[in-house]
Amino acid sequence: MQLPLPRWFAHRGGGSLAPENTLAGIRLAARLGYRAVEFDVMLSAEGTPVVIHDETLERTTNGVGRVCDTPDIVLFALDAGGGERIPRFAEAAALCREYGLLANVEIKPAAGYERQTAEVVARQTSALWHGAAVMPLISSFSLEAVAIARNLAPEIPRGLLFERVPADWQQEMQRVQALTLHCNARHLEDGALAEAHAKGIPVLCYTVNTPEQAQDLFGRGVSAVFTDRLDLFAAETSAYKGLQLGG
Question: What pLDDT shows up at residue 121?
Answer without folding.
Answer: 98
